[in-house]
Write a structure and sequence with these properties.
The chain is 46% helix and 9% strand. The protein is mainly alpha-helical. Helix 4 packs antiparallel against helix 5. This is Glutathione S-transferase l3-like protein.
Length: 220
């Protein structure tokens, strides 16, 4: 991975230091990335930037399909830390259907996450169900692999952090398994859990539950 080539600075989301807004990122959002004299924010934009500007086989390449190569990416909280994936395939953009569907899914990430967080204000299990059904249906689009575009790609990277958190919270707080009746979603999560670069950076489930209880579910 690129851990030895970058400097990670942890930010307390509940008490962000003044210097971060004043000297680093005026919008005061986390995460952000400083590289080559400029600072970027927004998780999905950072994923794309790291994919395009750092070494390794890209997760959204412009060339022919490549498999079983190392892939490096950064995402933490909404982005995983930089890591490598030696068992992943990447998107074959020679397939126009995959390219188009991948772009549609990436443009839907904000809507997907908003729907999940809005569900916390009502009947969470019922209101979040259509959101996970969307993912189940999307996973059936291609049959050449268990991921959203068949092969592992940047699209999976964009969705899994949010699915991971809600999978844990709904199971622990609401005693509901989001994979029940959704075999493709269950397989997708299972296959992603085989990727070391992802599993090494997963947060402690109890920390996620406590965070959600404190910020979104005080009644629980």
């Amino acid at each position: 991975g690129l851990q030895d080539k970058i400097h990670l600075v942890p930010i307390d989301l509940q008490n962000r230091p003044a210097w971060y807004k004043e000297k680093v990122y005026p919008e005061n959002k986390v995460p952000s990335l400083e590289h080559n004299g400029k600072v970027l924010g927004e998780s999905l934009d950072l994923i794309k930037y790291v994919d395009a500007n750092f070494e390794g086989t890209p997760l959204y390449p412009n060339g022919p399909v490549m498999t079983q190569h190392k892939v490096r990416f950064k995402i933490h909280w909404a982005i995983w830390p930089l890591g490598s994936c030696s068992r992943c395939s990447v998107l074959d953009v020679r397939d126009p259907a995959k390219k188009e569907f991948g772009e549609q899914l990436l443009s839907h990430v904000d809507t997907f996450t908003k729907e999940l967080f809005l569900s916390l204000k009502g009947d969470t299990v019922q209101q979040s169900s259509p959101t996970f059904e969307f993912l189940e249906n999307a996973l059936g689009k291609f049959d050449d692999g268990p991921f959203l575009l068949g092969q592992f790609s940047l699209v999976d990277v964009a969705y899994i952090p949010f699915v991971e958190r809600f999978h844990i919270v709904l199971a622990e707080v609401f005693k509901h398994d989001i994979t029940e009746g959704r075999p493709k979603l269950a397989t997708w999560i299972e296959e992603l859990n085989k990727i070391d670069a992802y599993t090494q950076t997963r947060r402690d489930p109890q920390e996620i539950v406590e965070l959600f209880k404190n910020r979104f579910l005080p009644q629980h």
